[in-house]
Amino acid sequence: MTQALRNFKESTEQHVLAQIWAPVKNGARFVLTTSGQPFVIDPHSNGLHQYRMVSLMYMFSVDGEFEGELGLPGRVFQQKLPEWTPNVQYYSSKEYLRRDHALHYNVQGTLALPVFEPSEKSCVGVLELIMTSQKINYGPEVDMDLRLIKSARHLRLDVYLALLLNQICNEGRKNALAEILEILTVVCETHKLALAQTWVPCMHRSVLAFGGGLKKSCTSFDGSCNGQKGQGVTGRAFMSHNAYFCPDITQFCKTEYPLVHYARMFGLTGCFAICLHSSHTGDDDYVLEFFVPPSISDTYQQKALLGSLLATMKQHFQSLKVASGMDLEEEDGFVEIIQTSMSGRLDLRLECI
């Protein structure tokens, strides 16, 4: 493992600290620690050296029930899923316990990946990559890690970033996606939306993977996309086979919406998602996600835009329909609204438009 980390450091031009978190027994409980574990560090970055010393002082629960006990390594270990951020400043202190230290030592982009034994499903550790620059797309780092970890016997990384391009695309799916692309294009051009994209279920897990989209801004946002069932607006639309709207997705926490840091970075707020089926592909799910211009923040204006957006979609549907069977022309009870409370905390009660 140490040699694999060294190979990674030598193959990247980033100022990076790569360290392993592993479970050890602390009294009656198991905790994650990086003390005594393999690590590599940029010899020219004093900030990363200091941050490594800070990390040595921390231990994170592997089975804690509260977010503050887990921290970033604990969440990745417990959920067996990767977690990353373009900049740790978008975390709260509860979500990222080392936040103040990170800001002090100019730590920005961070990626954490679960490490597994090849023959087992149990997680045996967490690989954490820490950088002093803001990072949007971690695809190259993930690909490099996968190749290097394979050189370390007895270990493997499970990274569930299954993109649509890696799945077999039959003629029916090609036709469905062509129709979806036309709808995304027409809706964005008609209603001046900055970003629209498509999500599809990963074949191997309950994960939604980015399947293509149309963007006029937010460069590289789509390269950062994946999510669990029920997370964010798209996850809820997927679970219910219906449509959801949230006026301000930046109010989600990281565990509720893994891409919230990117939304804050790019100034994305209002988000509408709808789950569709196509007659070309039967029960295959496609979740279309649209981001409302930030200038439209008034509730009345947002609802008017949603009505117009749905009408535009209806005009261009050929093989597509709402997965729940609901007719787009039914006004009452169609779009469910995820409200934000007056205190700024997310209120997950749903209201019908």
TrEMBL record:
<dbReference type="InterPro" id="IPR045012">
    <property type="entry name" value="NLP"/>
</dbReference>
<dbReference type="Pfam" id="PF22922">
    <property type="entry name" value="GAF_NLP"/>
</dbReference>
<feature type="domain" description="NLP1-9 GAF">
    <location>
        <begin position="167"/>
        <end position="224"/>
    </location>
</feature>
<protein>
    <recommendedName>
        <fullName>NLP1-9 GAF domain-containing protein</fullName>
    </recommendedName>
</protein>
<feature type="domain" description="NLP1-9 GAF">
    <location>
        <begin position="228"/>
        <end position="320"/>
    </location>
</feature>
<dbReference type="GO" id="GO:0003700">
    <property type="term" value="F:DNA-binding transcription factor activity"/>
</dbReference>
<dbReference type="InterPro" id="IPR055081">
    <property type="entry name" value="NLP1-9_GAF"/>
</dbReference>
